[in-house]
Amino acid sequence: MCSSGLRQLGIEKVYYGCRNERFGGCGSVLDINECENSQHPRYTAIGGILADKAILLLRKFYICENNNAPNPKPKVRRIEFNKPERKKKRPAQSKMSSFGTIYKVTTFGESHCKAVGCIVDGCPPGMALQAEDIQKQLDRRRPGQNFLTTPRSETDTVTILSGTEKGYTLGTPIGLMVPNKDQRPGDYSETDLYPRPSHADWTYLKKYGIKASSGGGRSSARETIGRVAAAAIAEKYMSLAHGIEIVAFVSAVGKVKMPFLKDDGKNEQRDLLLSEITREKVDVFPTRCPDSETSKLIEEEIAKKKEEMDSVGGIITCVVRNCPPGLGEPCFDKLEAKLAHAMLSIPATKGFEIGSGFHGAEMSGSVHNDPFAFSGERELQTTKNDSGGIQGGISNGETIYFNVAFKPAATISLAQKTAKYDGEDGVLAARGRHDPCVAIRAVPIVESMAALVIME
């Protein structure tokens, strides 16, 4: 029935798909207004057929008055409603820019917008905090540090917008912002024609119906500035409150690996390295690989790929020391599951292993098990640590260590045969400034995501 006909019956509105508590399921709710007497409650139409008292009401208004008959034969008329047109499915909206619940970090910004940054919720009040505390980690991840990284020149200078007063945290949201200075969106004009191979151009377009034409947008590593800035605050708190230390380093690039990764189950060398490594020892080397011989080979490998206008992947090892026992939850929120989630959220990551990792699958239980022994420092501790400091999803007080695998950078200057958005074949030689090996600058990012997990 048309809307004017409904109004003649005193039916002012029809609400489609409303819950019908009496009959169950969904129906259409009629707002019935008998002009001067508005005493009728709402009635329900299920499948377009009126139910209950609404039938009698429509008989009174529609059948009797139109037929001029005081007592017409009882009959039920099917009232057909014009259903609203089904709207086209709208592309999904991006909702996943936050990490954590207790210590919650929300990042913002794209690779070539005016600024990037984050909002931090959950920082305890009363902690001394200056921009310099955050800047140290940002300097470690910024581009243009040496010939092995991207030539993009950014100072990545952080500004604290809110959440502190007189150098101390207030317990309110902390706003952090870093301006993008060296923007060159014109370097990405070809991405209007081509989805870059193994990049996020195609998948973002299919999910959101739009993509950033200048760089990778939210998929760019520039987004991780907010993570590193937020984690620097968390690290300071955990260091002061619990003495927790987090150190990451490059342990492999391409097929070049540090000796402990070549170990066939002997863990003395690994445990010694993980107990003594510091950020100062890591940063001495431009490759961030704390082994001089391996570092030289990594330099040669990266320089070779850079000359070939290609890229190469790598592995980062991360260690968390002085982590108290009891962190993590059984079943779905295990500590190693949280760490894996955090690490695999970093751009270009493709693998995660903790403790003995995949090598543990080749070991027997008698070799892999970590026996306990009494210690004067703690009630119990393990005599070795193939578990990686976590058992049953909960930290056991030992050193936590894990490896994160990074793929080769997807955007390379080497010409590649690929297809355009319109399906036409072509050749893409990407412009722009990119890291020949992303693992080197990802070291502080891995540390930061570990810090956010432990802080949470």
UniProtKB/TrEMBL annotation:
GO cellular component entries: cytosol
Pathway the protein acts in: Metabolic intermediate biosynthesis; chorismate biosynthesis; chorismate from D-erythrose 4-phosphate and phosphoenolpyruvate: step 7/7
Gene3D superfamilies: Chorismate synthase AroC (3.60.150.10), Cytidine Deaminase, domain 2 (3.40.140.10)
Cross-referenced InterPro entries: Chorismate_synth, Chorismate_synth_AroC_sf, Chorismate_synthase_CS, Cytidine_deaminase-like
Cofactor: FMNH2
E.C. code: 4.2.3.5
GO BP terms in the entry: amino acid biosynthetic process; aromatic amino acid family biosynthetic process; chorismate biosynthetic process; nucleobase-containing compound metabolic process
Keyword Amino-acid biosynthesis in record: yes
Residue runs in coiled coils: none
Enzyme type, top EC level: lyase
SUPFAM superfamilies cross-referenced by the UniProt entry: Chorismate synthase, AroC, Cytidine deaminase-like
Cofactor binding comment, as recorded: Reduced FMN (FMNH(2)).
Matching CDD domains: Chorismate_synthase (cd07304)
Keywords noted in UniProt: Amino-acid biosynthesis, Aromatic amino acid biosynthesis, Lyase
One example GO MF annotation: FMN binding
Organism domain of life: Eukaryota
A Pfam family it matches: Chorismate_synt
Catalytic activity: 5-O-(1-carboxyvinyl)-3-phosphoshikimate = chorismate + phosphate
HAMAP family per UniProt: Chorismate_synth
Entry similarity comment: Belongs to the chorismate synthase family.
Protein name: Chorismate synthase
Organism: Zancudomyces culisetae (Gut fungus)
